[in-house]
Amino acid sequence: MADRLSQLQDAIDQMATQFFSALRYIGTHHDAVPVGNEAKVTDDTAVIDDKTTFDAAKGELARDLIVKSKQIEFLITSLPGIGVSEDEQQERLKNLETELKEAEEKRCRAVRDREEAAEKLDAVIRRLRRF
Amino acid sequence: MPQEPPPGALSSAFPPPPTYYTHFTGENLTALKSHRLEDGTPPAADSLPEPLCYLVPPPPPTGSYRAFGEEWMVPERYPSLEEAGIRQLYPPTSMAATAAANGGGGGVDKGKELTVDRTIELRRLSKSLLLNYLELVGVMGMAPEQFHEKTADLETILFNMHHLINEYRPHQARETLCLRMEEQLERTRRETEENKKAAAKVEDILARLELVAKQADAICAGDGLGVGSLGEKRVDDGVAKARVRDMEAWKALVSMGGG
């Protein structure tokens, strides 16, 4: 999964796409209304939905936009490291580095101890078997 | 100038190595050595004869350079919106701080307010994004030919949001690094602990086996193996002792639960 910032950027891009597709849907699927006594204009390129479908689709598009906007907002509030300054981060990184070095040393020592113990055990087992 | 590169050498996805690598012959390298200055540094490229000048690396670029079809700044920093010709919608306070952060310069608490600022600005921008869209839809209903203004606004807002997010990236990178290091620390400590446990277990087993050996000796000694000739007795004694010892050892191992 992408990191939060990329997610946020993707969400914003998706929102822009939704803007476009919503307008386009309305542009291509709406019905025409005659002005005064003139004949109703017809457009062959448009696919005209009946009123209930059109209204439902409009509602859905609007809802999707709001949902996306909420998602963006949520992502913004969950950005990592809010309220932490760069100096604090640097400090933390330095501490972590020294701690890591110590831990690594301890680990090496422990591995050596374990290997020595295993060797000792091995020697004892050999002696046990043999007569 | 070096000789002309073969066609397509600069634009292909996997370009061939630069043609001047052919000049790195042993002969040329020795020739270059004789041109070295007193302090051992190689001379400037333009003071050398034709093939040798390709062997000296050029000075590092200043200002900017191009790589992978993009312009890169030296020192590396994220160009501001103004430089890209886009109106900046959030206050410039965070810009100054970002410049300081980019340059690695010191500054008191530059990051803390910056991140808080930034989330607030981002939320504001996302709100006005939606609002502007609503206005755009309104404009489209009334006077569709006047959409330019609103789409331009929308574009500016989108650019601003992306820019803010990208400025946030170094901060996130540091944060992620912190997390990874904490994980590694945790892992190393766990491993140390497990190794210590294993060593302790082995020591434990050894101690018990030692005890077993002593027990076996005691049992053998108490058996009173006094029959048979002297030589026979010694062998029998040894075999019996080993047998008892093995039995005791197995018992001990089984009682440890396969330890």
From TrEMBL, chain A:
SUPFAM superfamilies: Mediator hinge subcomplex-like. GO terms for cellular component: mediator complex. Keywords: Activator, Coiled coil, Nucleus, Transcription, Transcription regulation. The keyword Nucleus applies. GO terms for biological process: regulation of transcription by RNA polymerase II. Pfam families: Med21. It is found in: Nucleus. GO terms for molecular function: transcription coregulator activity. Its main location: nucleus. Residues 86-121 form a coiled coil. InterPro entries: Med7/Med21-like, Mediator_Med21. The keyword Transcription regulation applies. Signal peptide: none annotated. Component of the Mediator complex, a coactivator involved in the regulated transcription of nearly all RNA polymerase II-dependent genes. Mediator functions as a bridge to convey information from gene-specific regulatory proteins to the basal RNA polymerase II transcription machinery. Mediator is recruited to promoters by direct interactions with regulatory proteins and serves as a scaffold for the assembly of a functional preinitiation complex with RNA polymerase II and the general transcription factors. PANTHER family: MEDIATOR OF RNA POLYMERASE II TRANSCRIPTION SUBUNIT 21, RNA POLYMERASE II HOLOENZYME COMPONENT SRB7. Belongs to the Mediator complex subunit 21 family. Component of the Mediator complex. This is Mediator of RNA polymerase II transcription subunit 21. It comes from Tuber borchii.
TrEMBL record, chain B:
One of its GO terms (molecular function) is transcription coregulator activity. It is found in: Nucleus. It holds the Pfam family Med7. Residues 1-19 have a biased composition (Pro residues). Residues 1-21 are annotated as: Disordered. One of its GO terms (cellular component) is core mediator complex. It comes from the Eukaryota. GO terms for biological process: regulation of transcription by RNA polymerase II. InterPro entries: Med7/Med21-like (IPR037212), Mediatior_Med7 (IPR009244), Mediatior_Med7_sf (IPR044888). Component of the Mediator complex. Component of the Mediator complex, a coactivator involved in the regulated transcription of nearly all RNA polymerase II-dependent genes. Mediator functions as a bridge to convey information from gene-specific regulatory proteins to the basal RNA polymerase II transcription machinery. Mediator is recruited to promoters by direct interactions with regulatory proteins and serves as a scaffold for the assembly of a functional preinitiation complex with RNA polymerase II and the general transcription factors. Belongs to the Mediator complex subunit 7 family. This is Mediator of RNA polymerase II transcription subunit 7. It comes from Tuber borchii.
